Amino acid sequence: MYRAIRIAIPFIVAALVASACGAASTGPKPTVKIGSFNFAESIVLGELYAQALEANGYTVERKFNLGNRAIVFPALEKGDVDVVPEYLATVLRFVDANAKGSSDPKEAQKQLQDAVKSKNLTVLDYAQAVDENAFVVTKATSDKYKLKKTSDIAANAQGLLVLGGPPECPQRPFCKIGLEQTYGIKLKDFKPLDAGGALTVAALDGNQIDLALLFSSDAIISVKGYVVLEDDKHLQLADNVAPLVRNAVATDDLKKIFNAVSAKLTTDELIALNKANGVDKKDANVVAKDWLKKQGLIK
Amino acid sequence: MTLLADVLRWFTDPAHYRGGDAVQTRLVEHLELSGLAVLVGVLVALPIGLWLGHTGRLAFIAVNVANIGRAVPSLALLALALPIAFALGLGLGFWPTFLALIPLAIPPILTNAYVAVRNVDRDATEAARGMGLSESGILRRVELPLALPLILAGIRTASVNVVATATLGALVAGGGLGRYIVDGLGLQEYDRLFAGALLVALLAIAVEVSFGVLERAAISPGIRVEPRAL
Q1: Does the interface predicted TM-score (ipTM) exceed 0.90?
Q2: Structure pTM?
Q3: Which residues of B touch A164 (CB under 8 A)?
Q4: Is A208 exposed, middle or buried (0-12, 13-18, 19+ CB in 10 A)?
Q5: Architecture in CATH of A32-130+238-294
Q6: How far is residue A83's CA from residue A235's CA, in Å, rounded to a whole number?
Q7: Where do the domains of chain A lie?
Q8: pLDDT in tens, B175-195
């Protein structure tokens, strides 16, 4: 009997502490389920929004690393997740394949909001931070074929380069199809690898591919000294980071918290976050916490 | 149910039998990769297994070392094989997958060969020795024929494992039937994904059945129990 009480004490204390904490927050705040895609930047962004909410007394359920958009977007529609850090142009094209899109983020946001209105979703303020599909080559390849702009490929290396990217690349307008149709590029071959991940980088380093599809905000590009080919025919549209939120949780309070985070997020800050996570190997939650503190968004 | 219908439609679409992504092309790639990996597995593991079985020496160590190959996940082996293949200038696709599959093929072949020879009736080998056969003669003419069905069973296990695992090659830009699975996942085309999985499963079963037939045929006439009418 005595022993049973002794065992029970820590649980009772824990329960009291927990209830006291609960009482400290002002008013009932819903539990928010934050989702993310299956690449590192998305998880860091998810952490940013998650920790900003937690600092304001929300309970957050993290559903990170779910998969690509074809998995994440339906999860958002169904309410399996409430929030996803999205990219304006890419998600617009996903929701409406015929959407015009725009290189102006304001216009892109408006088009996206119109497209998702019927799905009970709201696009919150977009960040200045942009992450686009970037076609990169090594310094050596850039020197060899004099490649600075994407259109240089058709001029100087037509039919000579092997492209590496995610398996879906050959059927995506921002990827292989765009290179062929917008730029008139003929590739030597395509190697199906991963979505801007370690495999693609390894293959580029190992000279197994000449041209790689990476994400423009990936810190590995500057660390390895790769050359990002300028998108001189504007194949990629305005892909600013913006949280896509279910109307059910999009209270004014939540919007205010998220918009404050997005307001501080520039492309340089995003690259720095990715570097801390991907190159310096710090955990996403630590990276997010350090950044939010530095920006004065959490204590 | 719609998935099943989609998969059926996928198989009947003539477009899937043309070009570099054709079913027959992927099937040949898959068989080529698996066949070569098993062949190398046989060349490495069989002599060692037979010798260990015949002498009974060092068997504990060798069998356990070989079994480590079974314990390490093939995906990890593939990740390890990739930089090796790059360093050797072998590239993506076929070679790293081939390197990763060999450690998977070796353990069942080695273990079965060892056990098969070890379990040959001592009376038979002693009689052969008494008749003046050399040690290699005993292995070749007495132990090997008696052990053959069990040896083939080891090669069968290795082949089925390798055929099923060769799908991983698609992760590193390889060909084979895994291509349908990895691409199907990337494109969210589940009919393609399921068709690929089905093809791999059917191929593994076909390999299993063919080896089963071979094993029965390989039973030494001296110990074969003929079914006869009472």
Answers
A1: no
A2: 0.76
A3: 173
A4: buried
A5: 3-Layer(aba) Sandwich (3.40)
A6: 28
A7: 32-130+238-294, 133-228
A8: 899 999 999 988 888 899 999
